[in-house]
Amino acid sequence: MPKIEISEMTMADYDAMYALLSATPGIGLRLADSHEGIERYLARNPGLSFVARSEGRIVGCVMSGHDGRRGYLQHLAVDPAFRLQGIGRALIERCLERLQAEGIEKTHLDILAGNFPAHRYWTKLGWKKRDDIVRYSFTKSDLDNL
After folding, report:
1. Are 133 and 82 in contact (CB under 8 A)?
2. Lowest model confidence (mean pLDDT) among 9-13, 17-21, 26-30, 46-50
3. 102 vs 3, 19, 61, 97, 140, CA distance in Å?
């Protein structure tokens, strides 16, 4: 089994990360995930997003950030050939450790309603599904894919 290395995500990782996310069922990519959108996200949340590499190739990724009170995980993906090796858990743990170092104790994530494998995964890891809140979104422009 090749060694897995986890490092901070940089914009140099964008194309490979985007390709992995695009190939992962259940992940919804939007205009906000454009090169410019991710560049803004990483600049606003430095040191909080990570990639996993095997022999130099990106095989996993996760993004995280916070609003000063709560953390948020987004776009966790692991190449199917590398699943069940703890890569996802390692990426998540790295995010949570970094968020905690910034004083963030509680972290949220969003899952598309029909992504049942993701629901099972996060439940298995001990994350709690919230039934007491409903998320609303508003887009100020005419673009609905933000």
Report:
1. no
2. 26-30
3. 29, 30, 21, 9, 31
